[in-house]
Task: inverse folding
């Protein structure tokens, strides 16, 4: 049902874009708005390019956290840490990178495992939040430039009306205001679309960072509680010699 609806929407957009009258209307709309229309279009294009890059990156950084944790848990419980490390190495996502850093220190103390995981989290977090601020900036600037273009257009309209024939003042003023509002319309379209994308990407990045912190803590607890005689990260306790036993006695 959903793929059919998406395909229908895509076909509608393609049909409208290929319609000569639609292209002509867009060209007239852009031309009437003046130079500010092209500035907003350039900013919008930049925002879309950043959004596309972020979408590709975040989806490559994401992974099914519960499934990965189950695999790692089974490997650790069977004392096969090497298998867990190999599983993490086969993925380009960020969560396996963090888990791998902790697994490499499975034979060390709980504090050392925690330090390794926290250091890796600090390393990967900027990759998730990279360029996200640009999207919010694009949305705000698009709106402001749209308003600036409208004010500039109104100033020009009133200046033209001041020297026009009294009979045609109302018509010229209405036409000038209509053209001036084009920049506000395009600025709002740019801002709304970028804000929606920014909200979706923020939700995705929060999910990735949340899973990294959650499963990082769970791995620390798993490796810490698994330590014991003959188990992962453990060392056999030293037994006192016979002479020492007699002395103690």
Result:
């Amino acid at each position: 049902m959903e793929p059919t609806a998406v395909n229908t929407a895509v076909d509608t957009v393609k049909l409208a874009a290929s319609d000569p009258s639609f292209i002509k209307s867009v060209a007239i709309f852009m031309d009437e708005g003046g130079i500010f229309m092209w500035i907003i279009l350039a900013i919008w294009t930049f925002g879309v390019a950043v959004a596309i890059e972020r979408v590709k990156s975040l989806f490559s950084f994401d992974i099914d956290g519960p499934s990965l944790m189950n695999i790692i848990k089974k490997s650790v419980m069977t004392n096969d840490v090497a298998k867990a490390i190999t599983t993490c190495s086969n993925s380009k996502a960020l969560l396996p990178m963090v888990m791998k850093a902790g697994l490499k220190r499975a034979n060390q103390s709980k504090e050392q495992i925690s330090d390794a995981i926290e250091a890796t989290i600090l390393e990967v977090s900027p990759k998730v939040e990279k360029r996200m601020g640009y999207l919010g900036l694009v949305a705000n600037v698009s709106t402001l430039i749209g308003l600036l273009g409208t004010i500039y257009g109104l100033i020009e309209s009133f200046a033209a009306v001041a020297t026009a024939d009294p009979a045609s003042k109302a018509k010229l003023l209405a036409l000038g205001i209509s053209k001036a509002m084009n920049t506000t319309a395009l600025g709002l379209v740019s801002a709304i679309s970028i804000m929606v994308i920014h909200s979706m990407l923020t939700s995705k990045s929060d999910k990735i960072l949340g899973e990294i912190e959650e499963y990082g803590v769970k791995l620390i607890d798993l490796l810490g509680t698994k330590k014991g005689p003959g188990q992962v990260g453990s060392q056999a306790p030293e037994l006192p010699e016979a002479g020492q036993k007699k002395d103690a006695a």
About this structure: The CA atoms of residues 6 and 243 lie 82 Å apart. Residues 1-10, 12-17, 228-249 have pLDDT under 50 and may be disordered. Residues 1-33 form one domain.
